Amino acid sequence: MKSLKKNKKLTGFLLLLPLTIWLVAFALYPILYGLRLSFFNARINNIDNPNFIGFQNYVKLFSNSEFASSLLWSLKFALIATFIQMLLGILIAWLFQRDFPGKGLATTLILLPMVVAPFLMGTMFRLLFNESVGPIAYLLSGLTGTTALLGMAWVNQTIIGADTINRMPFVFINMYSAMQGVPQELLEAATMDGANAVQKLVHITIPTISSIFGITFLEKLLQSFLIFELISAMTAGGPGTFTQSVSIFIYRRAFQRSDYGMACAASFSLALILLVPSLYLVRRNTKGDK
Amino acid sequence: MTRKQKKTLGTVLTVIAVVIIIVILDMGVLTNFLTAFKAPFDISSSPPKWIFKPTLDNFRNVLGKGSFDFRLYLWNSFVIAVISSFIAIILTIPAAYSIVRFHGFGDVILGSTMLLRLAPALAFAIPVFLIFNNMKLLDTRIAIIFMHTLFITPTSLLLFIGYIQDLPKEIEEAASIDGANTFQILTQVLIPVLLPGIGSTAILGFITSWNEYLFSGILSFKKAVTATVGTSFFITSYAVEWGNMAAAITLSTIPTALFIFIAQKSLVKGMTAGAVKG
Amino acid sequence: MKKVLFALAALTMLLCAVMTASAADDAIRMVYWPGPESDAMQVVIDYWNANMAEEAGFTVDMELFGRDNIMLKQEALMAAKSADVDLFFTASRWLGKYWMHMEPLQPYLDNPEVNIYGADTEGRIPATVDGFRWLDGTLYGVPMDLSNHFLYYRTDLIDELLSNEEWKATYKKIALEQLGEELEPKEPAEWTWTDYLAASFFFTKAYNPDSPTEYGNFTHGKVMGPTAFLWTNCYWSFGGDWFDADGKVNFDNEAARQALSIWKTSFEKGLTPASSVNGEFAEDNEAMIAGQVAMTVHWNAGYATIDAEESPVHGKIAVCAPPAGPEGHFAYNHTLGVGISKYSEHKEQAARWAAWLYTDEAAKLYAEAGGIAPSKMVLADMSDQFPVYGYMVDVLNAYGKNLPPTAGIIEDMACGALADAWNGAVDFDTALAQLQADATEEMSYWE
Question: Considering the entire predicted model, what is its pTM?
Answer without folding.
Answer: 0.92
